[in-house]
Amino acid sequence: MDWSIAALLAQDGVVTGAIYALLGLALILVYSVTRVPFIPMGGFVTYSALSLNMMQNGKAPSVAALLLVLGVGCFILQLLQAKRQRTLTLQRILGWATACLVAPLLLCVAAVYVPWTKVPGLLQMAFVLLITVPLAPMIYRLAFQPIQDAGVLVMFMVAVSIDAVIVGMALLLFGPDGVRNEAYSDFSMQLGNLVVTGHSLWTIGVTILLVVLLYGFFYFSLEGKKLRATAVNRVGAQLVGISTSRAGMLAFGLAAAIGAICGILIGPTTTLNSSSGVLIGLKGFVAAVIGGFASYPIAAIGAIAVGVLESFSSFWASAWKDAIVFTLIVPVLLVRSLSGHHPTDDH
């Protein structure tokens, strides 16, 4: 291996690591707020990428139908809960109907009747976010909020089940074939023997922008401070009037937005199918484990290490690259186990 090949592999590793860093940050966010190991995170990567591919080929993104189905479920659940608590009012019914039924129905109509091949790429991406991001808060409302006081093991088992459902639904909605999206930019520049592509710059730039926006959200907005308070002490947040259920839905929504953006970013460079999100999400999970599901900076550094390790492993032993990456968890868990610090579930 000469230096030019090493530089190319390092570039690919950093770009891939940036994606894993975003996924790792999203996983830490969800876990710190809700204590849910959000295994289905990779599903939102594939849902957004495959939905965008359908739109680029003039097809209606079928995820909109799934959004409507989940909306009906959330609406029924809200009615039953309000009736049981004797808080059912006409104003609440209209509000729930608008959010859970009318909005998804309008998105379904737009998905079917808009000629997507004539729509600019940025608007296509925006619509993909509109139909994929709300899925996560709905999943939280249906599957996790009713058991929000359960232990981490129960949450993990439910998350694994939800992941299996998401993969199965992806197979039903998109089919088994692998696809690759249209390139967003043909820009490239030469730095010595290294060719830097426009897509690499876009990926790193969007990653930095998202990190900055998330930092500003958590430290300077009221909702962000509520999320931080819930992550630090769940019981204390409830005592001062913060709705932990609403915080959980917001955390799931932010995580889904990050996952959907990652799917849009990797779509032109990676062939994806209905089950691709499993491996992608697990590699983000490795980054979160390195950060101890608590430290964003350490998780980001770990994600870059995962990306670089995967890139060089694909050159030296492509058949074993995934095994090599996942083996990285073993020494990390060993070190954390020997450190003697075991956080509890009492958040």
What can you see in these coordinates?
- It contains 15 helices and two strands.
- The protein is mainly α.
- The chain has a two-stranded antiparallel sheet with strand order 1-2.
- Helix 1 packs across helix 9.
- The longest helix has 32 residues, at 3-34.
Number of helices: 15
Distance between the termini: 49 Å
- What is the makeup of the main sheet? 2 strands, antiparallel
| Sequence of strands across the biggest β-sheet | 1-2
Task: Please mark out the parts with pLDDT under 50 across 5 or more consecutive residues, or reply none.
Answer: none
Task: Name the shape in a single word.
Answer: globular
Radius of gyration: 21 Å
Beta fraction: under 5%
Mean pLDDT: 90
Number of strands: 2
Q: Give the helix proportion (percent range).
A: over 70%
Give the ordered list of helices and strands: HHHHHHHEEHHHHHHHH
The helix/strand class is mainly alpha
Descriptive keywords:
single chain, 347 residues, mainly alpha, two-stranded antiparallel sheet, 15 helices, 74% helix, globular
